[in-house]
Recover the amino acids of this structure.
């Protein structure tokens, strides 16, 4: 069973817009991950969309596709649709990022 913190997730992830086009769907948003927060709180997550992210503040560590990674402010990432992943903010400041989820 997955544990969820709906109030924390709502505070962390803000969908700025969600639109559908013929043959495609785009979600665009902003995330602020507090120090010590892990997403998801246990296990991994995945989604049907391609995920493109740009880190604007802080550093995230995690696993995506079975590989360890670290990404910091000024860097971008791509997570393919269906790939299991998780991340954690081990720093002492919030990690902020902008994301686009694209389903074609």
């Amino acid at each position: 069973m997955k544990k969820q913190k709906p109030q924390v997730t709502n505070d962390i992830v803000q969908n700025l817009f969600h639109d559908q086009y013929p043959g495609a769907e785009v979600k665009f948003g902003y995330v602020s991950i507090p120090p010590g927060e892990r997403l998801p709180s246990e296990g991994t997550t995945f989604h049907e969309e391609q995920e493109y992210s740009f880190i604007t503040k802080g550093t995230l560590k995690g696993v995506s596709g079975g590989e360890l990674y670290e990404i910091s402010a000024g860097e971008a990432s791509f997570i393919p649709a269906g790939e299991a992943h998780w991340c954690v903010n081990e720093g002492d400041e919030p990690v902020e990022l902008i994301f686009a989820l694209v389903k074609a």
Q: What stands out?
A: The two ends are 30 Å apart (CA to CA). Residues 1-8 have pLDDT under 50 and may be disordered.
